[in-house]
Specification:
Blueprint: H1 3-21, H2 25-30, E1 43-47, E2 53-56, H3 58-73, E3 79-82, H4 87-99, H5 104-110, E4 124-128, H6 143-151, E5 157-159, E6 175-178
Antiparallel strand pairs: 1-2, 3-4, 4-6, 5-6
Helix pairs in contact: 1-4
The structure holds zinc ion.
Length: 181
């Protein structure tokens, strides 16, 4: 199978899932995120702050371990909130929000549609630090965020969704992507 063929098949599968969720073509086109292929090569990364088992690509894991160790040396504690998420998981997450009465237009401002989350690649990490509410914008006020802004690039991590990003996604100071994962 060629890469192009695989991409076409994957896109068709994603389109079908989105249709089942009730996502209109217009809404899908409005979202500016690129398609993200689900990772196959994953390794365990231990528990997150909620005790859930997390996984990521091997290269992301080694960079994450080096980065969190360097942060600890500087007196900064970095903790994992979320790493790899499957397309199925992302579908369930959206379904749960729909069940709670949220509308798709609002959901897509904060959650990527299935197939479009960087977490599918196993290279995106949501981070927090003790005393900070997970996945809250106030993470930008922490010493951990200040440390990441200066040092994350040395470990090949970059913030994917800065303020006023072109993807139409809310500012996510906690979401870091491993460029060499
Ligand atoms: Zn994230």
């Amino acid at each position: 199978m060629t890469q192009l063929y695989q991409t076409v098949v994957y896109q068709a599968l994603i389109d079908q899932l989105l249709q089942q969720l009730g996502v209109t073509t217009a809404l899908q086109q409005h979202c500016q995120l690129p398609l993200q292929v689900e990772a196959v090569d994953l390794v365990g990364a231990g528990p997150d702050i909620f005790g859930r088992h997390q996984s990521m690509t091997p290269d992301t894991l080694s960079r994450w371990q080096a980065m969190s160790a360097a942060a600890a040396d500087a007196g900064v504690i970095l903790q994992l909130v979320s790493a790899f998420r499957s397309v199925d998981y992302q579908c369930q997450l959206i379904r749960n929000k729909l069940d709670r009465g949220q509308c798709l237009q609002d959901i897509v401002k904060v959650s990527a549609l299935p197939g479009y989350s960087e977490h599918h690649t196993g290279r995106a990490l949501d981070l927090t630090t003790p005393g900070s509410e997970p996945l809250a914008e106030t993470f930008e006020l922490t010493a951990a965020f200040a440390w990441l802004q200066v040092n994350a690039r040395d470990f090949d991590f970059a913030m994917s969704y800065p303020r006023d990003n072109t993807f139409g996604i809310s500012y996510e100071p906690w979401h870091w992507f491993c460029r060499q994962g």
